[in-house]
Design goal:
Elements (H helix, E strand, L loop, with lengths): L6 H13 L5 E3 L30 E4 L5 E8 L2 E5 L1 H15 L2 H4 L4 H9 L1
Antiparallel strand pairs: 1-4, 2-3, 3-4
Helix pairs in contact: 2-4
Amino acid sequence: MILNIHPSAASNFNDKAGSLIKLIEEFPKEKQKKSLFQSDLYIAASITEKDIIGDIEEATLDYRGNIVQRFFYFNDKKFGLSEKNYSELREIAERIQSLSAVRRVLSLLFVERKLFT
């Protein structure tokens, strides 16, 4: 399927999306906390890399369930967009998704994910 978007609009969106790259920052990896609670239940299966299909998505949600931060791993380091910077990504996604050619076929969440990846 081909989406027909005015060339100057497409160029504008490409420029705005490109500016997001400068906003990516490194985040400290959170250390696994050892639970004080000892469960009587034991894990009966192990998930291996073979079981994982695609990239692992990590995000922070607000109290309403909206994504406010998104992260990815590269060379064993955690990178992502802070809440303020992620709101800029979301604004661009909303503008793209508001185009009638896009709105009819793509959800806002899909546009957000593709902008981030």
